[in-house]
Specification:
Structural class: mainly alpha
InterPro entries: DUF6730
Keywords: Membrane, Transmembrane, Transmembrane helix
Number of domains: 3
Number of strands: 0
Distance between the termini: 183 Å
Radius of gyration: 63 Å
């Protein structure tokens, strides 16, 4: 019986150890179920708020720069005002001079035509007077003119 008692004793010890292990496992499972994982979002919230403030500051800086650039572009002038006024004035004076020259040229043409006609008329009158005073010269002139 000694062996039987030893075997029984071993079985009881094993069962006791098994029960203890089962209890430990149950306790571990219970603790695992009770354990709730909590995330600490405070550092992330701080980073997100810093990022938002940085983004807002950058947006304000960019808008200020764009507004400043717009004002500069509105005030920018390619040429100085005095140069533009001088250029426009010179163009007006040049156009006036060209118009004046054209009008003078046209009136000179009329004056030249009138002077030419007066010269021809004076020449004709002079020749007529000369030929009336010297009829023989008129005959010589007619002979000469026929030869040509």
């Amino acid at each position: 019986m000694n062996k039987l008692e030893t075997i029984t004793q071993l079985l009881v010890n094993e069962l006791t150890d098994f029960e203890a292990n089962v209890k430990r496992l149950e306790n571990g499972l219970q603790r695992a179920e009770d354990l709730k994982v909590k995330f600490d979002l405070a550092p992330i919230d701080n980073l997100v708020s810093e990022l938002k403030s940085f983004q807002q500051k950058e947006t304000e800086d960019r808008e200020a720069y764009v507004n400043k650039l717009d004002r500069k572009l509105e005030n920018a002038k390619i040429y100085p005002q005095w140069a533009v006024i001088a250029f426009i004035s010179s163009m007006v004076v040049s156009a006036g001079a060209i118009l004046f020259g054209y009008i003078q040229n046209e009136s000179n043409k009329d004056i030249k035509k009138e002077a030419y006609n007066q010269g021809i008329e004076a020449y004709q009158t002079h020749l007529d007077t000369f030929f009336k005073e010297h009829p023989k010269t008129f005959e010589v002139y007619n002979d000469w003119n026929k030869k040509q």
